[in-house]
């Protein structure tokens, strides 16, 4: 019985990783709150956020893209460019935990929270049976 409970706890804690990394995804949006969570393919190991700010005279515009990618994109290109009077600033950030490329802070995925709860309850039950 104790072995069965222990195996159940281990399988629940590993379930999130078996599902793959989850990242927010959207392309060139002015409202990053509209980005939707997606499960990345097995070959993608990081969540990427790219922020592009462009300025033409006094008009400013910011577009955000969020996506899954195998590795963090090369950051050796110039961050600031000026082309025909248009100033473009590009910033890339990468992370590798579920939904880490959110617009704001998140409490983690529901599977992580469920795993922590089950693990905590399981620890108490195992100690009671020992």
Commentary on this structure:
- It is elongated and about 45 Å long.
- Helix 1 runs antiparallel to helix 2.
- The chain has 130 residues and is of the alpha+beta class.
- The protein has 2 helices and 6 strands; from the N terminus they run H-E-E-E-E-E-E-H.
- The chain has a domain at 19-98: CD59.
- Strands 2-1-4-3-6-5 form a 6-stranded antiparallel beta sheet, with no helix packed on it.
**What order do the strands of the largest sheet run in, or round the barrel if closed?**
2-1-4-3-6-5
CATH topology of the domain at 19-98: CD59
The value of Rg in angstroms is 21 Å
The overall pLDDT, averaged over residues, is: 73
Major sheet summary line: 6 strands, antiparallel
Structural shape: elongated
Number of separate helices? 2
List SSEs in N-to-C order.
Answer: HEEEEEEH
Name given to the CATH architecture of the domain at 19-98: Ribbon
Number of DSSP E strands: 6
Per CATH, the class of the domain at 19-98 reads Mainly Beta
- Terminal-residue CA separation: 12 Å
Class based on secondary structure composition and strand pairing: alpha+beta
Helix content: 25-40%
The percent range for strand residues is: 35-45%
Residue stretches low in confidence (pLDDT < 50, at least 5 long) are: 4-17, 104-129
Q: What is the CATH superfamily label of the domain at 19-98? A: CD59
């Amino acid at each position: 019985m104790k072995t069965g409970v222990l195996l159940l706890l281990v399988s629940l804690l590993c379930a999130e990783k078996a599902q793959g990394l989850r990242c927010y995804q959207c392309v060139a949006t002015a409202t990053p709150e509209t980005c939707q969570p997606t499960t990345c393919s097995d070959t993608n190991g990081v969540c990427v956020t790219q922020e592009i700010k462009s300025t033409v005279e006094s008009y400013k515009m910011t577009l955000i893209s969020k996506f899954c990618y195998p590795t963090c994109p090369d950051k050796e290109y110039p961050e600031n460019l000026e082309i025909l009077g248009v100033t473009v600033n590009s910033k890339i950030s990468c992370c590798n935990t579920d939904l880490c490329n959110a617009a704001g802070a998140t409490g983690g995925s529901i599977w992580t929270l469920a795993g922590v709860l089950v693990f905590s309850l399981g620890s108490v039950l195992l100690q009671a049976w020992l």
